[in-house]
Write a structure and sequence with these properties.
The chain is an all-alpha fold and 71 residues long. The chain has 2 helices and no strands.
Length: 71
């Protein structure tokens, strides 16, 4: 899933509410192996999203850097 919030409505808690509901729904799925879990990826420079995810209890486990090949 991707989540974006219209700039006009930012700061009203919409991203947190949508992500919270999505995480709850995902955690209700019982996997065949291991405990239920949710993971996500984001661009390292997206500080606004990081604040939302941190507030929801996500924590940084792995960091990957993108590199562009020289032309």
């Amino acid at each position: 899933m991707s989540l974006g919030v219209d700039p006009v409505t930012r700061g009203q808690g919409l991203a947190g509410a949508v992500m919270s509901a999505a995480v709850r729904d995902c955690l209700e799925v019982v996997p065949r192996l291991g405990p239920p879990m949710v993971s996500l990826g984001m661009y390292a420079s997206n500080d606004v999203a990081r604040r939302v995810y941190t507030r929801l209890g996500f924590r940084l486990e792995h960091r990957f850097d993108s590199r562009h090949r020289a032309a």
